[in-house]
Amino acid sequence: MSDWVLDVPLGTERLELREHRAGDLEDLLVFHGDPQVTRYTPWPVRDRQQTGAALDKRLTLTHAAGPGQAISLAVVERASSTVIGEVMLMRRSDSTAELGYAIRTDRWGQGLASEAVAALLDGAAALGVTEVRAVVVDGNDASVRLLGRMGFTELGVPGPPAKDGSPTRTFALTLG
Questions:
Q1: Residue 119 — φ and ψ, nearest 5°?
Q2: What's the CATH code of the domain at 62?
Q3: Which residue among 64, 127, 131, 153 is least packed, with the fewest CB closer than 10 Å?
Q4: Position 39 pLDDT exceeds 70
């Protein structure tokens, strides 16, 4: 089993996906502390100290050596050099992964999450990943639409309950 190491940064026309940096705290706080964003994430609303601790953890998520380990990347808007979100690839096996992403609310509706996810999926394919899954909190219609545009299909089996006990839906995409 070899380590998964993405060749970063990953780029799109408007975005750069790169490893997190210690200086990202202020930008992360914008969405880690936003209840509109965190209602759909596995983490609760975070204050500065909690976001700092989360950033410290993300600084170590640069490769996935085995199942249960993740790669987390900052999503940087090229025009402003601002971290506007993050994407995550959780290794489930040698060939399967789970996708996660969050974008700050003032960038919603601009196609930036789709751009970031597409770049991460390209990176996953380069690692030899053949299936990517995503678990979506029921009611997160924007993520359901995004995954549909990316080619994901709903599996029809619930995922684990969300942090507040809400039901979730599981989607999958075959790569390659």
A1: -65, -40
A2: 3.40.630.30
A3: 153
A4: yes
